[in-house]
# Entry
Amino acid sequence: MRRTKPRRFVVPANSSARSAPRAARYERQLPEQRRLALIAATIDCLKRYGHEGLSIRTISARAGVSVGLINHHFPNKDELIAAAYRHFNAELVAGLKAAVARAAPQPRQRLRAFLQASFSPPNLDRDVLAAWVVFWGMYRHSRAIQRVHGENYESYVELVHGLLAELIRDERPRGTSVNLRFIAMGLSALLDGLWLEWCLEPANVRPAEAVALCESWIDNLCRGADSSRLE
# Structure
């Protein structure tokens, strides 16, 4: 396969991003600090402008730096967006884990804390949907986004899987079995659907209703699970 040099960003002369608000310039920072600042500016642009926020001119204006400095830290735009995707998801998952850690030690309480955090800020923020739409839209054509999506999905499902396993082992009747992977996959889909519905029209789904619906669904599927046969 022919190897090519990393593509540098090309900013169209008539880009509408020239009107993007310019943040105050940062003082000199360490490379990792600068990368995090650029990632934060990228996430902010995606929340504010959606796909329009993909413009490197918009991002550089928001960060208060030159396009050349972004080129210095990221080989191309896909890698910058992928880094933003990774950071964005990591913060959301960290918030869910923190909510679980603060809960009472009983599996039921830990799972409820997870569900309540899933339907609370910062997860319950309509601006967050704009960023997710950009990430999802890039998935089909960006290897970098595909790679990060796999990492994100694994970390999230691992959390859901662990909470459900704790609950099943704690509340199961004996002599029956359940496909834990099946339940975790179904709960993830239910959470995504309810969250998306809230983002599109908050009046259709109240957070307390979403939590109650998820708990009812879990109870119906997990009733009769045997920990010796969890898959």
About this structure: Residues 1-21, 23-27, 225-230 have pLDDT under 50 and may be disordered.
